[in-house]
Design goal:
A hairpin with a 2-residue loop joins strand 5 and strand 6. This protein folds into three domains: 205 residues, Leucine-rich Repeat Variant; 201 residues, Dbl Homology Domain, Chain A, CATH 1.20.900; 124 residues, Pleckstrin-homology domain (PH domain)/Phosphotyrosine-binding domain (PTB) (PH-domain like), CATH 2.30.29.30. It is elongated. It is an alpha+beta fold and 603 residues long. It starts with a helix and ends in a 7-residue tail after the last helix.
Length: 603
């Protein structure tokens, strides 16, 4: 016990860890613990103390170096740690969980941990809040995040164990002011789980979205970033085909990341940055591998099978994936070289490599993002062809890859992931660090590109919706797409209330028999139409300048029925509308009010 305590204290110096590992100490450490643990057990005071100190020591060893993590794994430490997860001592379980979390930063170790520690047990460990200490919940959450990023068994475990409801309860019950660090970890776990369609659906049905939107308002940058990612994943309208359990493995980064201490720096910040750098490299590897699978396993073979998929269908589904693969495989080479070819002091200039090798290429994502919905729709339609569906299933099984739909969403998620990772790196980097300014500049540029891509997506969506409106209303003799800044906001059929003024009915040529009208709201215009009988087309009723409208919500009573309505006052008089679902009426009120105030106009 005392010898282990001495080693633990020594290991706070990275050089000590490296010397210890190079001298063969890892194997000795694991072997001696096995003998001592067998003799002492977990019930004696010395046994509990040994387990606690030893798991803490392994956690420290596993924190910094990929090389040391590899030696630990080869020594069989994963099985020992997973065995200790069932210990009665909360501190031992917490230390073992933290050690597994550190080991799981290398993608090669994920499946080994999942095979040794049952995922449902980890979910149960997280959600047993009545007996689990707070720090154990934190460590378990981080472990589940790391495992969930690469393994389908984690979302499946949450679904099997009823863990989605447990996550909802944790978010609802956690005092955000007292535990902001725990809250961002739980919400990041939600972001990870919501990449799985079944989990995403259940999270939405539980009502998780409003809770995360509320948490996003809390003034904590890390929490805000986690909320943004969770909201982004929860709101994505994507097609998810069931992925196979086996994942393409990403090799852990070889070599050491040397420490660099500058003025205002500290050991903890150095170690945390090293982990984030490792995650940047490993996730980039995984992303490039996913793009390669799309190109080589699916797209290129389909060019020779026109009977399965026409050229037009293929272009719509795969878009510019080949271009993205070229961009990111080149970037990955430069990124790895930058990390491995450090300066003698250990300084890595990641900011410069992002700025020189990647940022200028990212705007090409506009083409992929704008085409993504069409890609999903085309894939769904193609899946209705039995021959194509069978071919896809055969390829997925043969190459043990993710399902095609799961792969096609990865480019949508990549740029927001860069923002999160670089922000995390900067958070733990003093301003005196030589890479701080280049990284800050790179992050700002990537965020600007992310905003630009979102704006381009909204432009494309608006253009499509406006064109559909113009084709639907037969007598609409003007082109609303000519104004470049105009955005489409919403459309829908509403009911006219009997309190609508006669002036409005007369000027809009609507008889008292007309009960339904259709509203098309844009940033500066409100178009009103009505459906033609026995036709899918509409007739124009009126076009109003939004800035001249006035809106108010009222409660009216007619024929013994009380309902909430919207009164929209125009230069033609007022018309009063309502919908069956009052929530939709609230949405209309908010969107029209914001348009009147000019909030929906793009900057």
């Amino acid at each position: 016990v005392h010898a282990t305590q001495v080693l633990r204290n020594l290991f706070f110096e990275i050089e000590s860890q490296i010397l210890f590992a190079e001298s063969g100490g890892i194997d000795v450490l694991v072997r001696i613990f096995g003998l001592a643990n067998q003799k002492l057990g977990g019930q004696t005071k010395s046994g509990r103390e040994l387990r606690s100190v030893w798991t803490n020591l392994v956690s420290i060893l596993a924190y910094f170096s990929p090389v040391i993590r590899t030696k630990l794994v080869r020594s069989g430490v994963i099985d020992i740690l997973c065995m200790l997860l069932s210990a009665d001592d909360g501190e031992v379980v917490s230390n073992a969980t933290q050690a597994l979390t550190n080991l799981s930063t290398d993608a090669d170790n994920v499946q080994l941990i999942v095979e040794s520690a049952r995922p449902t047990s980890l979910v149960q460990q997280l959600l047993s809040s009545t007996r689990a200490p707070y720090f154990l919940q934190e460590h378990t959450t981080l472990l589940l995040i790391n495992l969930g990023l690469s393994c389908d068994q984690i979302p499946e475990a949450f679904l099997q164990y009823g863990g989605i409801e447990g996550i909802f309860n944790l978010i609802e019950e956690t005092n955000i002011q007292a535990k902001p660090q725990f809250m961002w970890k739980i919400i990041y776990l939600v972001a990870t789980l919501s990449r799985d369609e079944l989990c995403r659906r259940e999270l939405l049905e539980m009502g998780t979205l409003p809770l995360i939107e509320k948490a996003a308002a809390y003034k904590d940058d890390t929490l805000k970033q986690a909320c943004d990612m969770a909201l982004y994943n929860l709101k994505l309208n994507f097609v998810h085909l069931k992925a196979h359990k086996e994942k393409a493995k990403v090799k852990a980064e070889e070599g050491e990341i040397k420490k660099v201490i500058v003025e205002g720096d500290n050991e903890k910040g150095v170690m945390h940055r090293a982990r984030v750098v490792g995650e940047i490299v490993n996730t980039e590897k995984q992303y490039v591998e996913n793009l390669l699978v799309i190109v080589k396993v699916y797209e290129e073979p389909l060019t020779k099978l026109p009977k399965l998929l026409s050229r037009d269908e293929r272009v719509l589904i795969f878009s510019i994936v080949t271009t993205l693969y070229t961009i990111h495989s080149n970037f990955l080479q430069k990124l790895q070289k930058t990390v491995l070819d450090q300066t003698p002091t250990g300084i890595i200039s990641l900011g410069d490599v992002f700025k020189k090798e990647l940022i200028n290429e990212l705007k090409v994502y506009r083409l992929y993002i704008n085409n993504y919905d069409d890609s999903c729709d085309t894939l769904v339609e193609a899946m209705n062809k039995p021959a194509f569906a069978a071919w896809l299933e055969e390829r997925t099984t043969q190459f043990k890859s993710k399902a095609l739909a799961s792969l096609l969403i990865t480019p949508i998620q990549r740029i927001p992931r860069y923002c999160l990772l670089l922000a995390e790196l900067l958070k733990n980097m003093p301003t005196t660090h030589p890479d701080h300014e280049p990284l800050s500049s790179a992050l700002e540029q990537i965020q600007n590109i992310a905003n630009y891509l979102e704006d381009e997506k909204q432009k494309a969506f608006s253009k499509t919706e406006i064109e559909q409106m113009q084709s639907k209303i037969t007598d609409l003799n003007c082109d609303f797409t000519e104004v470049s800044w105009r955005r489409f906001i919403r459309q829908g059929t509403v009911l006219l209330d009997s309190t609508t003024t006669q002036e409005f009915r007369t000027k809009s040529n609507l008889s008292s028999k007309v009960q339904y009208i259709h509203l098309w709201l844009m940033t500066d215009k409100l178009v009103v139409s009505r459906a033609e009988k026995k036709s899918q087309k509409h007739k124009l009723v009126a076009i109003f300048e939004v800035s001249k409208l006035k809106i108010s919500k009222l409660t009216v009573e007619a024929d013994g029925i009380t309902r909430v309505v919207l009164k929209i006052s125009t230069e033609w008089g007022a018309f009063v509308v309502y919908v069956v679902e009052e929530d939709f009426l609230d949405d209309w009120e908010i969107d029209i009010s914001e348009s009147i105030e000019g909030k929906n106009k793009p900057e």
